[in-house]
Amino acid sequence: MKNNERYKRLIKTCAAVIIVAVEVLLYWCVWTGYYNRIIEIPFWRRGNWLIVGLYGAILLFFLNTYGGLRIGYLRHGNLIYSQMLSIVLVNIFAYLELVLIDKKLYAPWLFLLLTAVDFIVVVAWVFIFQAVYATLFPPRSLLVVYGDKPVFSIWKKFNSRDDKYVISGAISLNRGIDHILHEAGKYGGVIVGDIPSHERNIIIKGCYDQGIRAYAVPKLSDILMRSATELNLFDTQLLLSKNEGPQIDQLFIKRVLDIIIASMMLIFTLPIFVLAAIAIYTTDRGPIFFRQKRLTVNGKEFDILKFRSMVVDAEKDGVARLAGQKDHRITKVGKVLRSTRLDELPQLLNILRGEMSMVGPRPERPEIAAEYKKEIPEFDFRLKMKAGLTGYAQVYGKYNTTPYDKLKLDLTYIRNYSMWLDLKLMILTPKILFIKESTEGIEDDALNALIHTENLKEEIYGKVQNLEEKIGRG
Fold first, then answer.
1. Per-residue model confidence as pLDDT tens digits over 383-436
2. CA pair distance 118, 82, nearest whole angstrom
3. Domains of the chain (ranges plus CATH)?
4. Angle CA 333–335–339, to nearest 5
5. Pairing with 309, which of 59, 187, 225, 352 sits 20 to 30 Å away (CA)?
């Protein structure tokens, strides 16, 4: 596989060029072959190039944003979904552009036909090039290096992508770094678990020296320093971690955008509010909205608003718990609201009241946050910014992401905050609304994500021991 690595970028580039060219060519046929002939003032050569070029530019923007060109990175279904989401959005734009150009409404049947043909082309493209990629670049054999802290979480994540990775070995840090580096040469890469920084750094440098891929689980300090500013005042490199949070002008712009976007969304989603309210009320004649204490910036408590998705008095025993995958407390209407995350829409009112932002760490319940702090004292780092309707952890994580991983994702957002990052996360949010793994709950017998994490240990522990014994016999 190493001999083929040099061709990986070429294969991906060719795949991207082919699909974009075909999709733009299909639109060219629709525009020049039909619409440009029936509009009142037709475009000539350069005008047609401009219209089609604009279509291609917007298509590329959405494809890059949603990952529609990431052959070999996303699974088949996710890649097709990313492609079609991009195509639907750009075709909607193209239709609105047509209406504005000719100042009249047209039946959208041809755009629907174009989307259908695009879908057939995309499915064929995905299966052909994914097959080519899988043949040239089979799953990478990996060695897991672990210490006293468990590796069950990262182990399960890598196992979920058996199309890309195969964990073929596991070795304890106690076996010694020299022995680990010797064994590492037999694999296509090394997963360095949460081990002490000194030993981790030696292993990573050893892998670099041998040309071995190293996948390292970042520590909180790594995330803090990764966003540090590089100073070139001296002939020695320095990294400055300012630790001051967003500047006053950034906070002002963020608040203005919150008010504008939340107000617009509230107006556009008013029909959904009405339909959801009717559906919830007719289910059991209970209250439409659900209020609950949550934490926002600097640990301030506020009442979060949601559409009620559970039965009335869902926590009548007084115990705070997260929703499970098959939670009997969730109503039929609630399942639909939760699966599409429409239950979160009332939080637009929280945003207008200044209690939340459009983007930020998701607000936790004080009781559950207190439990997390017992295991993760740094969990309050998430409170450096105002809670958000969507966030970095929601886009790149899952509902049942472990608290520690969620903290690292939120800290990545806080440390790299910018208006453009907020806009990017808002654009990415629609993609995750209909992805099941992004909305699935924790295990039904778990009160919070820490207990859900504990339940993974026994499942992984035996596999680690078996693989290490295999290395020992070798």
1. 999 999 999 998 998 777 888 899 999 999 999 999 999 999 999 998 887 776
2. 13
3. 2-136 (no CATH), 140-217+458-473 (3.40.50.2300), 248-442 (no CATH)
4. 125
5. 352
